[in-house]
Write a structure and sequence with these properties.
Number of helices: 1
Structural class: mainly beta
Strand content: 35-45%
Radius of gyration: 20 Å
Number of domains: 2
Largest sheet: 4 strands, antiparallel
Oligomer: single chain
Order of helices and strands: HEEEEEEEEEEE
Strand order of the largest sheet: 4-3-6-7
CATH superfamily of the largest domain: Immunoglobulins
């Protein structure tokens, strides 16, 4: 499950959404970067969007930064939309339309927590065993761990659980 489109844990990376924008007809928008940029308040940030919608309007804390769409013919460098917006904590929102109707919305909200540095701990109740944990960070010591503490540092993670069967004779 490791590829350029997914991290080591199988979580989708931005490249996943780029491929989705090119290969699916189901309306989608994906905005990047994350919106946790403490200390960069007021800095002008490039905001990218992968989409298969006709147009996308970008909002920062309710203020529109304009509507964009693709111009055809386009080259591979034109397969995303770009805005520049001053960073301010709050909500980054993309509204996608097709045939003049809103079909999808994505919102990214500033969390106020340190990015990707919270401990996640797993526990099993019942007949099961944790056989590995991962957080998608290739530099983490938690990758594919099969023994030791069942925890990892990141805001999200996955655990592999093996079902244990007991036979009664």
């Amino acid at each position: 499950m490791r590829s350029a489109s997914n991290d080591t844990c199988g979580f989708e990376k931005d490249g996943f959404y780029f491929c989705q924008s090119q290969w699916t007809e189901k309306p989608m928008v994906h905005v990047l970067p994350h919106w946790n940029l403490k200390g960069r308040e007021g800095d002008v940030i490039p905001v990218l969007c992968y989409t298969n919608c006709d147009t996308v309007e970008l909002f920062v804390n309710g203020k529109s930064f304009g509507v964009q769409g693709y111009w055809f013919p386009c080259t591979t460098s034109d397969l995303h939309l770009t805005w520049t917006a001053p960073y301010q904590p709050g909500t980054l929102k993309a509204v996608g339309t097709k045939d003049g109707k809103v079909v999808i919305t994505e919102e990214i909200v500033t969390t106020g927590a340190p990015a990707a540095d919270n401990e996640v701990t797993f526990a099993i109740q019942g007949e099961g065993k944790i056989i590995g944990v991962d957080n998608g960070n290739p530099g983490s010591d938690a990758i594919d761990r099969q023994s030791g503490p069942d925890s990892t540092n990141r805001d999200f993670a996955r655990a592999q659980v093996k079902q244990c069967h007991h036979r009664y004779f």
